[in-house]
From TrEMBL:
Species the sequence originates in: Saccharobesus litoralis
Entry protein name: 23S rRNA (Cytosine(1962)-C(5))-methyltransferase RlmI
Molecular function per GO: methyltransferase activity; RNA binding
Annotated ranges, domain PUA: 3-88
Example GO biological process: methylation
Entry keywords, A to Z: Cytoplasm, Methyltransferase, RNA-binding, rRNA processing, S-adenosyl-L-methionine, Transferase
Domain of life: Bacteria
Entry GO terms, CC: cytoplasm
């Protein structure tokens, strides 16, 4: 390893706390000519070793730490060890309730830029940093050794790779005879069919597993509106728990078709309807019609990609939640979420409070929800916390 990064004076504090990012403005000089993704050593201005990292010449995050141990070699053995540690944690916590789980949660699992989900015998990976892309062949080999005879599909077809100077990438990295892009997983007794080739992210939102189960507990004998329904998973749990009726709303015809299919394979086709519609417009239509619900699930896509979008996102969250409050029966329940990492928990709660105020309703938070256990948050990496949920009882 010949290349080195030397930091500006007093810019090593975050690394000493084992936060894995080194920003471009923190770098004093680069010794050597590392290529994109190559491994470099990082030193303080005083010459103290800080970490071993991957180099990303085009990103604001100029390097991401693989290890804070000077003796670590970033090779096949390293990735096997890291993946095995993550696998043990997931299998202990998740397998009793689901055969779909997040195997690798990027920085929170010590593998910056690497996301890998396991869907009932198929692995789906995203390689979103220069270092992850550079090490991809080695990571794939490690996955093959830990999960023999398991297909590995790549879904690195996301815009964030542009920040690392990378092009989108998608397709099979390792295909077995029985590997397919349509997979059925189970969670809490519910079957969910997903499309790892065309679905959102890696095909599904595993992070909402716990919240879906909890939503079912607020749905028995209730009329439920499931907004931004996608695969219909919240609806499945509601109906399994005895909801009197569920309305699923999503703007995507593909998502509606998948949701219908999921209700069919679970034999939950009674007491459910599907609305292909813009949720914002649909909520306003329901308000004009005087329609009411006992329980509303508000799980929108990410509204905030960068800090410049935060103000507009706040308006969006407030608008849809204000309408949701207006559509709830007295004594009803709103389960509302934000998956935007830049939306702080306290700010999200304030937005929901303001939405209730503008709707002329009063509510109390009776439960706070977050990402499932297979989406851990590194103690030194607070950015790993992104999914915020509130269960609000409405007067």
């Amino acid at each position: 390893m010949s290349a080195r990064i030397i930091l500006q004076p007093s810019r090593e504090k975050s690394l000493l706390r084992k936060h894995p990012w080194i920003f471009s403005r923190a770098i004093k000089k680069v010794i050597g000519k590392p290529n994109s993704g190559e491994t470099v050593e990082v030193y303080s201005d005083k010459g103290d070793f800080l970490c071993i990292a991957s180099y990303s010449p085009e990103s604001q995050i100029r390097a991401r730490a693989w290890s804070f141990n000077a003796n670590t070699e970033i090779n096949l053995a390293f990735f096997i060890e890291q993946i095995n540690k993550a696998k043990i944690l997931r299998e202990k916590e998740i397998l009793p309730v689901s055969n779909g789980y997040r195997l690798i949660a990027a920085e929170s699992d010590g593998l910056p830029g690497v996301t890998v989900d396991f869907y009932n015998g198929v692995l789906v990976g995203q390689f979103l940093s220069a270092g992850a892309e550079y090490q991809k062949p080695v990571i794939v080999e490690a996955l093959k050794q830990i999960f023999p005879n398991t297909g590995i599909y790549e879904r690195s077809d996301v815009d964030v790779r542009k920040k690392e100077g990378l092009s989108p990438s998608k397709g099979w990295l390792f295909q077995t005879d029985n590997a397919a892009t349509t997979v059925v997983i189970q969670e809490h007794g519910v079957k969910i069919e997903l499309d790892i080739e065309q679905g959102h992210k890696t095909g599904f939102y595993l992070d909402q597993r716990d919240s879906r189960f909890i939503a079912g507990q607020y749905s028995k004998n209730k009329t439920v509106l499931n907004c931004f329904s996608y695969t219909g998973a919240f609806s499945l749990h509601a109906l399994q728990s005895g909801a009197s009726h569920v309305t699923n709303a999503d703007i995507s015809a593909t998502a509606i078709a998948q949701a219908k299919r999921n209700h069919e394979i679970n034999h939950l086709t009674n007491n459910v309807t599907f609305e292909k519609a813009d949720v914002f417009k649909l909520l306003r239509k329901y308000k004009e019609q005087g329609k009411r619900f006992d329980t509303i699930v508000m799980d929108p896509p990410k509204f905030v990609e960068n800090k410049n979008q935060l103000k507009g996102a706040c308006r969006g969250y407030k608008d849809i939640n204000m309408l949701a409050f207006q559509l709830l029966n007295p004594g009803g329940t709103l389960l509302t979420f934000s998956c935007s990492g830049l939306m702080e928990e306290s700010l999200f709660q304030k937005i929901i409070a303001d939405a209730a105020l503008d709707a002329g309703r009063e509510g109390k938070i009776i439960e706070k929800l977050s990402q499932a256990k297979d989406h851990p948050i590194g103690l030194a990496y607070p950015e790993g916390f992104y999914l915020k949920g509130l269960v609000v009882s409405v007067v």
